[in-house]
Design a protein that fits this description.
Strand content: 15-25%
Helix content: 10-25%
Shape: globular
Distance between the termini: 62 Å
Structural class: alpha/beta
CATH architecture of the largest domain: 2-Layer Sandwich
Number of helices: 4
Largest sheet: 4 strands, mixed
Number of strands: 7
Oligomer: single chain
CATH superfamily of the largest domain: Uridine Diphospho-n-acetylenolpyruvylglucosamine Reductase, domain 2
Radius of gyration: 20 Å
Number of domains: 2
């Protein structure tokens, strides 16, 4: 069985494309074809794809949103994986919880003792703008730099790279 048939069988007929134009997936709308283009919407499918690429010595290129990439007219040899795993989950932890699941994660970070903590988990297929708008609407600070409205909310630059956001009052400047 050819690799393309095996990929279609395990990842879905509509998710595996041959000689797909990369121009459809980049913001500059330029670039040649990918030998094999795969849309991934599940972690198990991603694991399968990685194993298949390794077993067959095929180069594997992971494509994000396509906004910071220029593809040559010669295209991309091997497999291009467009990750479309979307997830949005919020967990809130009180400062006095004894059995927090996040103790190991927090052990080397400095945190203010007075605040509760909110952990936001997102999929690699989520768009930054959508995430920041949801967090902004929920008044969760720390991701404003990715928002279209970032000028209104400038307080969280100190912690913007952490995976933790604090729920605070909305501040306007």
């Amino acid at each position: 069985m050819e690799i393309i048939d095996l990929l279609k069988q395990n990842l879905g007929e509509n998710n595996v494309l041959e000689n797909e134009s990369m121009a459809k997936y980049t913001s500059f709308k330029t670039g040649g074809n990918a030998d094999i283009f795969v849309k991934i919407d599940d972690v198990n499918k991603l694991n399968f794809l990685i194993k298949m690429a390794n077993r067959n010595d095929l180069p594997l290129f992971v494509l994000g949103n396509g906004t910071n990439i220029l593809v040559t007219d010669k295209g991309i040899r091997g497999i291009v994986a467009k990750i479309e795993i979307c997830k949005f989950e919020i967990k809130e932890y009180k400062k006095d919880e004894e059995n927090r699941k996040d103790k190991e994660y927090k052990k080397d970070k400095e945190y203010e003792e007075d605040n509760d903590y909110i952990y936001v988990t997102v999929g690699s297929g989520n768009k930054n703008g959508e995430i920041s708008q949801k967090l902004l609407n929920l008044e969760i600070e720390g991701f404003e730099f990715a928002s279209r409205n970032s000028r209104k909310h400038r307080r969280s630059n100190k912690n913007e790279c952490w995976c933790t956001w604090k729920r605070n009052e909305r501040h306007s400047i």
